[in-house]
Write a structure and sequence with these properties.
Elements (H helix, E strand, L loop, with lengths): L1 H7 L44 H4 L14 E2 L5 H9 L7 E7 L1 E2 L11 E2 L5 H14 L11 E8 L7 H14 L2 E11 L6 H10 L3 E7 L3 H7 L5 H14 L3 E8 L6 H12 L5 E6 L7 H7 L12 H14 L3 E2 L4 E3 L7 H6 L4 E5 L4 E4 L2 E5 L3 H9 L5 E6 L4 H13 L1 E3 H10 L4 H14 L3 E4 L2 E4 L1 H5 L1 H13 L4 H4 L3
Helix pairs in contact: 4-5, 5-6, 9-11, 14-18
């Protein structure tokens, strides 16, 4: 490692940036059937060296897919493989995800809508997911190592009737091996989530509530399908914070059509002054099939900000929160107090095992990713028959552990270069020639700094982090020996 350390201190080389043409990848909801990626040249990873890298570093933002070498498991093999992995002792950091697949309405920007909400579904669904959890309580994969975070996602978990939502929280605490400080998050929206329901969730054992506010601009909220005004959202959040029973976190989104830089600054300023524990600042992911994309195509909304304008929104958010004394704990998440840890998101992005329950839930176990059946009727029928209702099963690459570690580090804005080089060297790769020229070029482009074996992302690098991670992981994967890619 001494030669590696010394090589990091050498003057960075000055390769020329590419012509700006890179593979275009879009987010795809599971079940995911990856196509072989276009082989990259090293210069395909390079950023444009310019006076405005926040706008120009890359032609567009990319997404980090599940590993491109994952292999779908034939349906006839699901049951025996599940029997095998569910009877293996689970090791390492672990989380659990519970999916509540109902929404009161389809928000225009959302690509995760599954089922319309009807109140008569609450009790039946709660009974089913509780039975799914209870039935697995003695499996080796579900016992042993404690779970450090449990996340209720959706859909809209807060749409459930209060007694049913609380029953599920209590079942989680009864049947799953939770760490004493386990983070239990209830995700939801302000509509249909009165303060009494929030109190009941805290009393049942939840200690974190995450709400999709997206914006406080009342006009924009109406346009994208939110049912309460910005003023009502602020008032509710103030009351929720005043309960002082757990962490309160919200999401804000930039890049909406008709959203100005000034209105975005106002959104972040309001969030920073409400006493919240955490805030996520996300760029709008406009899926072509979403109602918002269709409405834009029909001329009902103005075109959203161009990709080269989005960096300005990110910088405003970063600047406002920094001025208010907030601390970043990932490239998209900030906190104002130590109560907020964001454990689920941080752990799942490092490849932690993830137990999954509920129709449409996705998880990871052993060397497999899986999804619970997203067909609601079939899901209920299968659970009542005493079986795990799988919707798909995929074998992950055997090298995913060290790549997940790199992905998780990039998410926090700090990549341990020496550790990555050593992992690549152990796999028979010329690690320094593989990644150091890329990191040096990114340093020259203003995306990161290299110090003491660590790459630390700048504000610009944090904005482009997902694109950089996508390129780096794909670049490494196409060089891994075929024998290491996947073991069937």
């Amino acid at each position: 490692m001494s030669s590696t350390s010394s090589s990091l201190k050498q003057s960075p080389s000055s390769p020329q940036p590419n012509d700006g043409k890179r593979p275009n990848h879009r987010g795809v909801r599971p079940p995911y059937r990856p196509k072989p990626p276009k082989l990259m040249e090293q210069q395909d990873l390079f950023a444009k060296v310019s006076s405005n890298p926040l706008s120009e570093a890359f032609p567009k933002k990319a997404v980090v897919h599940p590993f491109v070498d994952a292999r779908p498991v034939p349906k006839e093999d699901w049951s025996p493989i599940w029997q095998d992995i569910s009877h293996q002792q689970r090791q390492g950091k672990s989380v659990a995800y519970l999916h509540i697949p109902f929404c009161e309405n389809h928000c225009l920007f959302c690509g995760f809508y599954q089922n319309p909400w009807r109140s008569n579904q609450s009790e039946v669904y709660a009974d089913t997911i509780i039975e799914e959890i209870r039935a697995s309580k003695d499996l080796p994969s579900h016992t042993g190592h404690p779970l450090h975070a449990v996340y209720f996602g959706g859909g809209t978990p807060t749409a459930l009737d209060t007694p049913d939502l609380c029953r599920i929280i209590e079942a989680v605490r009864t049947y799953l091996p939770l760490a004493p400080d386990c983070e239990i998050t209830i995700e939801g929206r302000i509509f249909s989530f009165p303060l009494e329901k929030a109190k009941a969730c805290f009393d049942a054992g939840a200690n974190r509530i995450s709400l999709g506010v997206q914006t406080f601009d009342s006009k924009l909220r109406r346009h994208v399908g939110r049912k309460v005004s910005g003023e009502q959202a602020r008032d509710f959040l103030s009351e929720l914070v005043a309960l002082d029973q757990g962490a309160v976190v919200i999401d804000l989104i930039y890049g909406f059509p008709e959203q100005s830089l000034d209105s975005w600054r106002q959104d972040v300023t309001i969030a920073s002054e409400l006493g919240l524990d955490g805030v996520d600042l996300y760029s709008l992911s406009l899926l072509p099939s979403s109602p918002l994309a269709i409405a834009i195509d029909k001329g009902k909304f103005s075109t959203p900000p161009r990709h080269d304008e989005l960096g300005q929104y990110y910088q405003i958010g970063q600047d406002v929160l920094a001025q208010k004394g907030w601390m970043d704990i990932s490239t998209t998440h900030w906190r104002s107090s130590t109560r907020e840890r964001n454990l689920y998101n941080l752990l799942v992005k490092t490849g932690a095992n993830c137990l999954a329950f509920g129709s449409g839930a996705g998880g990871f176990l052993s060397d497999y990713s899986f999804r619970v059946d997203g067909d609601l009727k079939r899901y209920i029928k299968t659970v009542l028959a005493g079986k795990k209702p799988l919707g798909f099963l995929m074998k992950m690459p055997s090298d995913r552990a060290f790549l997940n570690e790199a992905k998780g580090q990039m998410e926090t804005g700090r990549l341990h270069i020496l550790g990555l080089l050593e992992a690549l060297h152990q796999r028979g790769l010329d690690s320094e020639s593989l990644v150091l020229p890329v990191l040096r070029q990114w340093q020259e482009s203003g995306l990161l700094s290299i110090d003491q074996g660590w790459a630390k992302l700048t504000l610009t690098g944090r904005f482009w982090q997902v694109t950089m991670t996508h390129h780096l992981i794909q670049w490494i994967q196409q060089h891994l020996p075929a024998a290491n890619q996947i073991k069937n």
